[in-house]
Design a protein that fits this description.
Blueprint: E1 5-7, E2 10-13, E3 19-22, E4 27-30, E5 34-37, E6 40-43, E7 48-52, E8 55-63, E9 68-72, E10 74-84, E11 87-91, E12 95-101, E13 105-109, E14 113-117, E15 121-132, E16 137-140, E17 143-150, E18 164-167
Parallel strand pairs: 1-4, 2-5, 3-6, 4-7, 5-8, 6-8, 7-9, 8-10, 9-11, 10-12, 10-13, 11-14, 12-15, 13-15, 14-16, 15-17, 17-18
């Protein structure tokens, strides 16, 4: 068994090429106002990265291909750019799970998927001006709220009735 790795409140500065990795069967937890600056988050096999029970912050971070980031009962703030090449799942537990823009403009690029699982609570994406790259896909019960969104028509799939986009 691999011991879990937990980032507790504070700023963790990574180099641009640095990697924070959840090995198969392990967990990396972002807790209690942790702030990750630069680098890559990655998970291998059954490994997972969790953002749970507080506010977490990512600045210039990449989620690598095949990796899983779960946001449950938490607000995950992204600043300026977030490159998602894996799967970010919002929700799936009681409470509210948010992906929020910390900066006035946020670009979510990469080839990944954002899943909004509002089966047990709210799953939301909101903030200032959010631009989704043409290779990002959004799935699930979608609630988007921002002053401006750029959604390429190929990026948004509406698999269930009731999915909606709204402007504020």
């Amino acid at each position: 068994m691999v011991a879990p790795l937990s980032f507790e409140s504070g700023l963790y500065e990574n180099s641009a090429t640095g990697v924070i990795q959840a090995l198969a069967g392990s967990t990396v937890s972002l807790n209690n106002d942790s702030r990750i600056l630069n680098g890559t988050l990655t998970s291998v096999g059954s490994g997972v990265i969790n953002a749970v029970n507080a506010n977490q912050y990512l600045t210039n971070v990449t989620l690598s291909a095949g990796s899983n980031l779960r946001v449950q009962n938490d607000a995950l703030y992204a600043n300026t750019t977030l490159t998602n090449n894996g799967t970010i799942t919002l929700g799936g537990s009681a409470g509210t799970a948010d992906l929020r823009s910390e900066s006035p403009n946020l670009t979510i690029s990469g080839t990944g998927t954002i899943v909004l699982d509002n089966s047990l609570g709210a799953a939301r994406i909101f903030g200032g001006n959010i631009t989704f790259g043409s290779n990002q896909s959004l799935r699930g019960g979608v609630s988007l709220a921002s002053t401006r969104r750029s959604l390429p028509t190929t990026a948004f799939s509406r698999p269930t009735a009731g999915a909606a986009c709204r402007s504020t």
